[in-house]
Amino acid sequence: MTTQPPPSPMQPVFMPNDAGKRRPVGLTALACANFALAGLAIVLAIFLILWANLTDWSGDLYRQAAGGGDADPSMPASPAETKVVASRSNNMEKAAVSAAMIAPAVLLLVISGFGYLRQSRGMGYMAGMIYGGLGVLGGVYAAATSGLSIVVFIALAYPVLTVVLLNTSFRTCWK
């Protein structure tokens, strides 16, 4: 009876996939990270929409308390009321733009996650590269509009990591 020595720590760990081809565990971890980030992005989009509606609701209460709105429609709007209305519409626009930017990212994260599990070049590699490119562009846009901050660096980290890993560690995994 012969026993095989344990694998050395330098050998990559593989898991079998649907076609019997061995998939690196790191690729499976990247797929799980994609699914987790897609879920977080969906929660963020819901939060943004609720936040915009909450500020809309609180703006209506403020306007009524300031004597505007339903108090006397023939009276001109006070400067405070005008500021609240402008702020409210600005919040709704920001929430709509943010939700519209989150939707393609979620779709690309889910598609590429399933592609990583199947080791599909089209679904995995291409969707991951598109997500990485759009994520980097979104991070550059955020840095240009709101300045460099830790949030921008965190938002840039995963897309850059995805592009680097797909083109280095996992470049031989695609059918």
Annotate the secondary structure layout.
Layout: E1 14-16, E2 22-24, H1 25-65, H2 79-118, H3 121-146, H4 150-167
Antiparallel strand pairs: 1-2
Description:
It is a single chain. With 175 residues, this protein is mainly alpha-helical. The chain has one domain (21-167). Helices cover 71% and strands 3% of the residues. It contains four helices and two strands. Strands 1-2 form a two-stranded antiparallel sheet. The longest helix has 41 residues, at 25-65. The chain is elongated.
List keywords for this structure.
175 residues; mainly alpha; two-stranded antiparallel sheet; 3% strand
Brief digest:
The protein is mainly α and 175 residues long. Helix content is 71%, strand content 3%.
Would you count the extended β strands for me?
2
- Rounded to an integer in angstroms, the radius of gyration calculated over CA atoms is 24 Å
The level of helicity is over 70%
What form results from the Cα inertia axes?
elongated
Query: What characterizes the major β-sheet?
Result: 2 strands, antiparallel
Q: Give the rounded overall mean pLDDT.
A: 77
Sheet with the most strands: spatial strand order: 1-2
Helix and strand succession?
A: EEHHHH
Q: How much beta, percentage-wise?
A: under 5%
**Total domain modules:** 1
